Amino acid sequence: MYAIAIHGGAGVISPKELTAALEKQYLQGLKDALDAGFKILEKGGSALDAVQAAVVLLEDNELFNAGKGSAFTSDETHELEASIMCGKRVDGGAACGLKNVKNPILLARAVLEESHHLFLNGQGAELFADERELEFVPKEYFYTEKKYKELKECQSNAGKNKGTVGAVAIDGEGNLAAATSTGGLTNKKFGRIGDSPILGAGTYANNTTCAVSCTGDGEYFIRCVAAYDVSALLEYKGMTLQNACQEVVMHKLKKLGGEGGLIAIDRQANIEMVFNGEGMYRGYQKQNHQAEVFIY
Ligand code: ASP
Question: What's the alpha-carbon Rg for the chain, to the nearest Å?
C-alpha cells in the first residue's frame, strides 16, 4: 500500500479571514501538491521523490509560507530552510539561512545525496547549491504583498505569524520519507533557525517506525524533539501511530505551551494529521482512494 500526506502549516488560520474564494485556492494548492506526489508513487517511484515533488509545488505556491511565499524576517529579508529524510537509509539532508535558492527542498535533497555533510547553512549552503546548478532567484522573487502585510502587522502588535509546508509518504516498496520547508516565523531576528530544517525536531523518517513532518512554534518542537519523539514512542513503547501523535501534539507540546501540529505515516500506511490549534492545511491520498484535503 502506498500513500502520501501533506501539510501547508498549522495555527495560521482564522475562519474570519478566510473568504470562500481564498479557501478554494488553498484547497486547490493542497490538491495539486498531493497529486504531484501521488503520481510518482502510482508510477512506482520512491517515497523520497514523492515528498520532494509535493513540497516543490507548495514552495512554488505563494499562499504557503515556504519558497515563493516565505515570511519576512525583521529586517525585511528572507531566510529559508528545509530538510528531507529517507527512512530506508535513516539519512537526511538539510539547509538553512538561504536567501536566493528558489526551492530549498531541492537543496536539502542534494545535501542528502551528494554531500558527506548533513546540514548546511547560509553562504556555504548556497555555494553548494550553485555547484549543483540549482535554480537561484533574485530576492524580489520572495516579495509578496500578503507576507509583507503580515510582517507589518507582526511588528505593530508583536503578533506571531507562522506557516510551513511538508509531506510524508510510503512507497510501493515500503520505504518511508519526510520533507519539510519553511520561511520560518514572520519577523524572526538574529539568524533564528526553527525546527523545520532540524532532523528529529521538524522532520524524521525511519523505515522501522514512521515518517513525520511538523509545523508550529518551532522552539517548542525543538524542545520536544517532536518528530523523533513520535518515532521513539512507536519504537520503544510500542504505541500506535495515533496514540504517539496524540501524546506529542496534545500533551507534550501543549503542556509546554507549543501550538502546532504534524503529519505522520507508519509502515502500514496509517496516516495521522494532528493539530492543537484552530486548523492545519492538510491532505492525504492512499492507493486506490480519492485525495482528501482539509483546513479545519
Ligand atoms: N515551525 C516553523 C518555524 O518555527 C513555523 C511553522 O511551522 O508554522 O519556523
Answer: 17
pLDDT at 201: 98
Angle separating helix axes 47-60 and 104-114, nearest 10 degrees: 150
271 CA distance to ligand 1 centroid (A)?
Answer: 21
Q: Which of 19-33, 60-74, 107-121, 148-162 shows the lowest per-residue confidence on average (mean pLDDT)?
A: 148-162
Q: For 71, which DSSP code?
A: P
Beta bridge partners of 294: 282
Question: Which pairing describes strands 91-98 and 119-121: parallel, antiparallel, or unpaired?
Answer: parallel
- The strands making up 80-86's β-sheet, listed across from edge to edge, are 119-121, 91-98, 80-86, 176-182, 165-170, 3-10, 280-286, 292-294
| Whether pLDDT at 12 is above 70 | no
Q: How far is the CA of 228 from the centre of ligand 1 (A)?
A: 16
Phi, psi of 93 (to 5 degrees): -145, 145
C-alpha cell at 129: 547549491
Whether the pTM exceeds 0.85: the reply is yes
* Ligand 1 atom with minimal separation from the 219 CA: 4
Cβ(282) – ligand 1 distance below 6 Å: no
> Is residue 164 annotated as a catalytic residue, yes or no?
yes
Contacts of 144 (CB under 8 A, 6+ apart): 62, 68, 69
Q: Any idea of the CA torsion for 106, 108, 112, 116, to the nearest 10 degrees? A: 120
For the CA of 164, the nearest atom of ligand 1:
7
CB atoms under 10 Å from CB of 213, counted, come to 33
